[in-house]
Amino acid sequence: MVSKFTKKTPPKSIKDCRNNRGRHRRRSPVKKAAIRASSAVLTTINKSLYTCHRRLIKIFSKLARIGSPNRNKGYKILTKTKESENKYRPDFEIPSSIRRTLVFDNNNGLPPMMSPERRTVFLDLDETLVHSMPDPPPERFDFVVRPVIDGEILNYYVLKRPGVDEFLEALGAKYELVVFTAGLKEYASLVLDRLDRKRVIAHRLYRDSCKEVDGRFVKDLSELGRDLKRVVIVDDNPNSYMLQPCNAVPVRPFVDDLEDRELTNLVSFFKGSDHFDDMRDAVKHYFARGDIDQLLVTSEL
Fold first, then answer.
1. Which of 90, 114, 170, 257 is at 20 to 30 A from 176, Cα to Cα?
2. Domain 115-256 grouped into CATH 3.40.50.2300
3. Where is the composition biased (Basic residues) (predicted)?
4. How far apart, in Å, are the Cα atoms of 43 and each of 47, 53, 70?
5. Where are the domains of the chain?
């Protein structure tokens, strides 16, 4: 029996196949042209950078020579004479009262009064001048403010107390009005921008100006740079004026009573308080009598 043997050639390895493929690859003319163009661009950029570098060195060397003093002479030290001292001195002396106004160093937020004859009225905001509610919207409101608190936009629907516009206008012409609220500035500033259209409120103080006593926000009037004889505070919260109760004019909290007349009555009180040198005496007289008309009669005598 004759057997036939066939010679088997070993299969080509993957490496040999890859080498053979690489031998047959040739670069296309388009790729060659792109490579030549890119190399030419790089060469041009290198030449431009080198030229700019050389020019900058020349410019800065010239500037260094211009700004340097003369080696022999150096800088000249000027002597101080009486003539040079008086050359730019003004011919008039600034009054001490104006100097105190220009140099203001008060950490509590109230600058000195421009008119010392005026008295100061501190006004609370929420439940005294307005009442505000968050979402959902109430049935009655005058305007909406949208403060950003802790990165979140909130809606507050504000209802003005009856007579608040007339109250602010009447007192603003006669007193220094300062709104002192325990509310956050992000919220209260937006409310005051809408409420004080005629800009009669002189200053604004927020929660950061309050003191915290036993977890309650207290408004200390003694640290605001005003004589306590010439100030009062109108507030619905007794905790706010617990440090100066004799300077307080309490009012009932306002929520949504459209028949409320608290602010209208207070206008009459402030008209009658002109008779008293000390505002605390006016407050004492007002609450002792319990009659605003009697206070008005006394002021006309």
1. 257
2. no
3. 1-10, 20-34
4. 6, 16, 43
5. 115-256
